[in-house]
C-alpha cells in the first residue's frame, strides 16, 4: 500500500500545531496567580510545622543522651533489612542457642552493621532495635 505524502501539507500542519501548542501552553506568571500564592503559603506553613516538630523531637533525644545527638542512630528501612539479614545469618550458622543469641553473634551483627553503614552502633542499640 503506497502513500504519497504531501510534504507541503505536512509542513503546514506542523507549523499550525507548533503555534497552537504555544498559545495553549502559555502559563500565567506564578507571581500573578492567586492560587499559586495560596499554595506557597500553605506549603510554607506545613514546612514550618514540620521543622518545629523535628526540633522538638530532636531536643528530647538530645536531652536523653546528655546533649550529644551523635549518639543517636537513625535507623532506615535499609538498615532494618540489613539487621534482619544479619540476625537470620546468625540463626543459620548457629549463633542462636537455646532461643537466645550468643555474645559472639551480637558482636558479629554489630561488626557487620558498622562495616556496611559506617556508623557507631553498639550491642545495646542492636538489642533495643
TrEMBL record:
It comes from the Eukaryota. Residues 12-25 have a biased composition (Basic and acidic residues). InterPro entries: Myb/SANT-like_dom. Residues 1-38 are annotated as: Disordered. Pfam families: Myb_DNA-bind_3. This is Myb/SANT-like domain-containing protein. Coiled coil: none annotated. Residues 74-129 form the Myb/SANT-like domain.
Amino acid at each position: 500500500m503506497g502513500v504519497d505524502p504531501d510534504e507541503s501539507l505536512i509542513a503546514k500542519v506542523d507549523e499550525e500545531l507548533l503555534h497552537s501548542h504555544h498559545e495553549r501552553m502559555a502559563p500565567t506568571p506564578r507571581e500573578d496567580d492567586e492560587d499559586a500564592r495560596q499554595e506557597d503559603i500553605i506549603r510554607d506553613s506545613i514546612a514550618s510545622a514540620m521543622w518545629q516538630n523535628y526540633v522538638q523531637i530532636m531536643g528530647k533525644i538530645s536531652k536523653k543522651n546528655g546533649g550529644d545527638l551523635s549518639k543517636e542512630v537513625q535507623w532506615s528501612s535499609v538498615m532494618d533489612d540489613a539487621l534482619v539479614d544479619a540476625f537470620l545469618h546468625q540463626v543459620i550458622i548457629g549463633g542462636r542457642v537455646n532461643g537466645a543469641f550468643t555474645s559472639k553473634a551480637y558482636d558479629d551483627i554489630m561488626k557487620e552493621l558498622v562495616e556496611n553503614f559506617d556508623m557507631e552502633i553498639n550491642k545495646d542499640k542492636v538489642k533495643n532495635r
